[in-house]
Design goal:
Length: 597
């Protein structure tokens, strides 16, 4: 009924090769010729070549050094790669650039393991350095709730109230799904014992029903709505910082997984200034309330597409608006446990000396039930929008797949490219459905690295069987699904090569300490070849760009990067230390750390 997944990443490649046609001879001088390299092409056979020639922003030759010589003219810039690895530019299939840029520019806890006293000290330092008035919110990022020290420590509004300030404070956990606020912020938002949970979120409460200060998912908007409107200038500066960082890390295309009007406006402003150096694929966020009314959701998306969509893919980076983001759940990790599971989370029975973990009763939420999601996904497809669904728990993944199955039953040949982001826990019976339904699993490989988030916050709460299949990248690939990689930055610090190591070896670089050594669980790792394909060709397919980017082939856009080490040969230990030395987008050199001179 459906095409095999092996064909997905090859769709359109055959038609791209003759599409070079620029009206010039194939042997006309190139603008750039790269020789003496290890050119990892990510073509159909993952071939390795020596040389690449680029003219007018596109690749005009891929082959050996001798063949590249005929493309050298009087004005050609010839670059000796000195044996270094060149590969296609990285395509991040799920990232939040404007939020990442904001984090680069604001008070951050840097994902560090902090005691309660250290937590307060760092926030107090930000308060002391800030010039904000007594009623101005202090926003803090980079909190790693599961890494509070000692193990089991936490923070709440009462802890924040110990700070020497009258200002309202909001602290964002690294996952973006949990926000901590102080009592002043709760009061400004009018959150009391009587305040109901909003659709798509919840207010954590103590035994007396009083808000603890932890707001889950959409509940954070009760406080964030009290923040002064961000100016366009603020958003532009955040986007500028993000684009610079992403370019230096070899990112040439992004799928911005929750863009919104603010982000789109910022990208457009950068483009008008000639500063947009990455290709942007944008989304409109359909929250739990808007999901109840598909017609209203389509009107909202259409309003963004009309203003910002630039459908043509050219050498110059542009903005394309073709997807909708939907949150079905939150996170698996304790203490939040807002991911929707088929069976309950485990709870600990007994005491510290005689621990016993048994299923409890809590299964976590699904923010948009199937009876609402099915018609929404169908109407999105009819209007030409890809549905990009955040689903982490196995119940939420199942609900999302059911919606895609319903859409395909009505629109079997729809060209939309459905995606489920994260899919940390998938029922084995659903592995094959990703391929059957043409659903791309957009995975964050760094979550397969043992750490506070993946072990402390999840292992005992899932039980051994479920934990052993957590982060099922290899299982999904074996079932025919074409993995795409999404960093989810700034949920995690930006290190693409550490993340790829996580997917391959299910292990990290020791940053979390000896308690988190070894591999994550029984799930196997993926190959180096698949890891690179997932962040180039497969993620290009995800964003309808596979005919233009994702591999180094004649006719494609010259989105290229050069590494300081050969990723295909570097040791496991050194893999996280790989650095990007050179980034080219559409034939324009945007970052060069010693390659071209």
């Amino acid at each position: 009924m459906y095409r095999s997944s092996a064909k997905w990443v090859l769709l359109g490649v055959a038609t791209v090769l003759p599409a070079l046609a620029t009206g010039q001879s194939a042997k006309a001088p190139a603008d750039y010729v790269f020789r003496n390299g290890y050119v990892y092409t990510v073509d159909k056979g993952d071939s390795v070549q020596q040389a690449v020639a680029v003219r007018e922003g596109r690749i005009v030759y891929v082959g050996n050094d001798a063949g590249a010589g005929s493309f050298v003219g009087a004005k050609t810039v010839s670059i000796d790669l000195k044996g270094r690895m060149m590969m296609p530019g990285l395509v991040d299939g799920h990232v939040h650039p404007v939020g990442g840029g904001a984090q680069l520019r604001t008070c951050s806890l840097q994902y560090l393991p902090l005691t309660q006293d250290q937590f307060l000290q760092r926030i107090q330092a930000c308060l002391d350095q800030s010039k904000g008035g007594p009623d101005e919110f202090l926003q803090v990022t980079g909190w790693y709730r599961q890494f509070m020290q000692p193990a089991g420590a936490d923070a709440d509004a009462a802890l924040l109230d110990r700070l020497k300030t009258t200002r309202p404070i909001i602290v964002a956990n690294r996952d973006g799904h949990q926000q901590l606020v102080n009592s002043r912020a709760l009061a400004l938002a009018g959150i009391t014992e009587q305040t109901p949970n909003p659709p798509g979120g919840s207010i954590d409460r103590d035994a007396r029903g009083k808000a603890t200060g932890i707001l889950q998912d959409a509940a954070s908007q009760l406080v964030r709505s009290k923040l002064p409107p961000r100016t366009t200038a603020d958003a532009v500066e955040d986007a500028r910082a993000a684009v610079k960082a992403l370019t230096e890390h070899g990112i040439t295309t992004v799928f911005d997984a929750a863009t919104g009007l603010e982000g789109l406006t910022a990208y457009k402003a950068l483009q008008e200034k000639g500063e947009l150096t990455i290709r942007v694929n944008a989304t409109g966020l359909i929250d739990a309330s808007l999901a109840q009314d598909p017609a209203a959701a389509i009107r909202f998306l259409d309003s963004l597409r009309t203003r910002f969509d630039q459908p043509a893919i050219t050498t110059q980076p542009g903005i394309r608006m073709h997807a909708a983001k939907i949150f079905l759940d939150g996170v698996i990790q304790a203490p939040a446990q807002t991911a929707g599971l088929l069976e309950p989370y485990y709870i600990m029975i007994g005491n510290g000396e005689h621990e016993e973990w048994k299923p409890g009763t809590h299964k976590g939420p699904v923010y948009v039930p199937g009876e609402k999601l099915n018609p929404l996904v169908l109407e999105l497809a009819k209007a030409g929008y890809d549905a990009h669904i955040h689903a982490i728990g196995d119940r939420s993944v199942d609900v999302a797949l059911n919606a895609f199955a319903y859409m395909r039953s009505q629109l079997e040949n729809s060209p939309v490219r459905s995606a489920i982001a994260h899919a940390e826990l998938v029922d084995p019976k659903d592995y094959r459905r990703f391929a059957e339904l043409h659903v791309v699993p957009v995975m964050s490989y760094q979550w397969a690295i043992p750490g506070p988030n993946s072990v402390t916050g999840a292992k005992n709460y899932l039980g051994p069987a479920r934990f052993d299949r957590m982060e099922p990248m290899a299982s999904l690939s074996a079932a025919g699904a074409p993995l795409a990689y999404g960093s989810d930055w700034p949920v995690d610090q930006m290190n693409y090569w550490l993340a790829l190591k996580g997917g391959i070896y299910r292990a990290g670089d020791g940053r979390w300490g000896s308690s988190y050594s070894g591999t994550l669980n029984a799930e196997k790792g993926i190959s180096r070849e698949l890891a690179l394909r997932s962040i180039t060709m497969n993620s290009s397919w995800e964003v309808h760009q596979e005919q233009q980017t994702g591999s180094i082939e004649t006719g494609k856009l010259a989105d290229l990067i050069v590494l300081d080490q050969n990723f295909m040969k570097v040791s496991e230990a050194d893999m996280p230390n790989v650095k990007v030395l050179f980034t080219m987008v559409g034939g324009k050199v945007l970052y060069d750390d010693g390659v071209g001179h």
